[in-house]
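Worked example 3. Consider a protein that binds guanosine-5'-triphosphate.
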Amino acid sequence: MIQAIQGKDVVYKKTQAVTYDGYFVDSPGEYLENRRYYSALLVSSFRCDVVGLIQDSTKKNSVYPPKFADMFNKAVVGIVTKVDLENSDPEKAEEFLRRAGVKHILRTSSFENLGIDQLRGYLSESERHEV
Ligand SMILES: Nc1nc2c(ncn2[C@@H]2O[C@H](COP(=O)(O)OP(=O)(O)OP(=O)(O)O)[C@@H](O)[C@H]2O)c(=O)[nH]1
Ligand SMILES: [Mg+2]
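Given these inputs, the predicted complex is written out as structure tokens:
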């Protein structure tokens, strides 16, 4: 996703730790799976303008607990991914994100370049977004 937003070639690279790429801070998905790591996510987001919560639209479940978004006390955007796949269920993905307290949600595919311009546009206006 970060590669696609920056117009780079999309190549698979597992996020092993909290990393930086341009204006982006990336965190391993595992940090969401264990509540002990929530504090690491909070600290990592401290100087960010926007937090993006990613929801894979092919998944039957979600790692986000109710109102997870409120923890950050800043603008949060919900990013539904992999809408290019046949088994994609964007409605369900949006439901998970809304339950997590996300109000603004975009449907995307990094592979097919869907929703990426909209996401880039949202992020470039991020200073004007309300919490
Ligand atoms: N079909 C499809 N597959 C995608 C898309 N974006 C990513 N993938 C694939 O999904 C898998 C996981 O993608 P990542 O972007 O690494 O996911 P992540 O959430 O960063 O995962 P971690 O780094 O492990 O936390 C990889 O095999 C990607 O190639 C997409 O838009 N469409
Ligand atoms: Mg990653």
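Take a moment to read the result before moving on. The chain has one domain: 2-128. The first strand starts at residue 19 and ends at 21.
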